[in-house]
Structures are given as C-alpha cells and as structure tokens.
Amino acid sequence: MRVKIKGEKTIKPVSIEEVTEEVLSPQVVKELIDKNQHGGKVSIGVSTWPARFKGEPHFHSDRDEYFYFLEGDGTLLIGEKEYSVSPNMAVRIPRNTPHTFSWTGKTGLRMVFINCYY
Length: 118
Known about the structure:
With 118 residues, the protein is mainly β. The chain has one domain: Jelly Rolls (Sandwich). The protein contains no helices and 9 strands. It has strands spanning 22-24, 27-33, 42-49, 63-71, 74-78, 81-85, 90-93, 99-103, 109-117. It has a 6-stranded antiparallel beta sheet, with no helix packed on it. It has a 3-stranded antiparallel beta sheet with strand order 6-5-8, with no helix packed on it. Strand 5 (74-78) and strand 6 form a beta hairpin. Residues 5-10 have low confidence and may be disordered.
C-alpha cells in the first residue's frame, strides 16, 4: 500500500515490507512514496546496490537528489570532486550535476533517497 495524498480520505505510514521491489539492474529500489502521489514533486525510498559496483557518470535535469547512506563504504563523484561515503552520511546532488558511485567494500550499498522534482 502506498501513502495517499491530499484529496484522498486517508494518509497512513507505509512500511518497507509493504512495498514491492523494483529491480533496475544492478540497483534494487523500494519506493515508499511515489512522485505521482505528490503532484510530481517528491519520491522517497530505499535503494540497494551490489558490492564492488562502479557506475557511469550521469545527471538528472528534472530533480535534486538527496541520499542518506545506511550501509556500505565507497566513493561518490560529484562534478569533478570525489568524496568518501559511509553509513550515517548524507549528501545533496543538485539537478544537472554529473555524479556517480563506486562501492569498494565487500558488501553493497544501501541508502535512503529523496528526489525533489522541478
């Protein structure tokens, strides 16, 4: 069950166990709040990536991204700057900013994401 929005009769908390996994190889996503429920403005979920994953640089022209890292260690490249990331760290990636991830540990990465759409 997904959280309902303004104009609907109930809004209730949603559990990660209630949400269906979406496999976006190699990423697995559980989206708790879908942007379509909020007038296309926000989505929130948990994303899991495999160990020793290295992504390609990319950007999003339609949203800012916020990440809160739950598990895993690695490197985050934002523009030309490289940052080490680990659990209990957070970051904002503004729209149109090139970025990518690289996970160096034996375990994968698990993070909360918040996408704010324009």
